[in-house]
Amino acid sequence: MIRFFFHPTPNPAKVALFLEETGLPYEVVPVDTSKGDQHTPEFREVNPNGKVPAIIDTEGPGGTEARVFDSTAILLYLAEKTGKFLGAPAERAELLSWLMFIASGVGPFSGQAVHFQYAAPEGLDYAVNRYRREIERHYRVLDRHLAGREYFVGADYTIVDISAWGWLDRAGRVLKGEDVPLASFPNLKAWFERIDARPAVAKARAVGQDHTFKKVNDEETKRALFPSNYRDIVL
Predict the structure, then answer these.
(1) How high does pLDDT run on average in the chain?
(2) Residue 234 within any structural domain of the chain
(3) Do 94 and 68 fall into the same domain?
(4) Which pLDDT does position 201 carry in this prediction?
(5) 3: which strand partners?
(6) pLDDT at residue 14 above 90?
(7) Residue 78, exposed/middle/buried by CB under 10 A (0-12, 13-18, 19+)?
(8) Residues 98 and 192 in one domain
């Protein structure tokens, strides 16, 4: 059994999609990041970095319990555990390259673009432009690569597609003000629509819906989500 520490945000969504694609048995453990659940001592034992997602696999290697945090690490771990969505052995280098590009580029720059467009104080035009332009550049890299391709690596659906879907599903928020957010990236748009039509996607979107997560953006939420902004919070 896998204990899946979850909040309805892009990185946990990737893991939810993988779990639904494979049918692995799992239990959702809600972590309300707007209330600061990620900073409790109990959760820091699961992920010392205080972020979701994280998993505890009670049937890890050799029958031992395995703790895994960071969405990319979790996808790799589960793909190796199940032998699914890793692509052909000859494509491993390509798979790792695109997986890390999403982990170190698309994800962080999407997150910063969202932060500075929606959460940061007004007047930070340089930062808004910087991250918005960079995520558009990242999208162009993906769009060019997908020309003539159905998936990112080889001929098959892999954890690269699963990882990318988690953030591209939020393109409308990342590219604030765009009526059709992927219109300028036709190959990426076609890829997203193909992935988004998979039956497991609807199931992944339903994960956690039986729990009421906090949605009010008050001072508690800001302190929980952006603790580095507050000098009185020891991280």
Answers:
(1) 96
(2) no
(3) no
(4) 98
(5) 27, 56
(6) yes
(7) buried
(8) yes
CATH of the domain at 118: 1.20.1050.10
Same domain, 93 and 75: no
The count of domains in the chain is 2
Buried/exposed 142-155: b ≥16 CB within 10 Å, e otherwise = bbebbeeeebbbbe
Q: Do both 101 and 175 map to the same domain? A: yes
Q: Which residues pair with 29 in a beta bridge?
A: 5
Mean pLDDT confidence for 60-77: 95
Q: Per residue in 100-130, pLDDT tens? A: 999 999 999 999 999 999 999 899 999 999 9
Place of tokens 């930062």: 127
Confidence check: pLDDT of 155 > 70: yes
% of the chain at pLDDT higher than 70: 99
Range of the domain at 78: 2-84+203-229
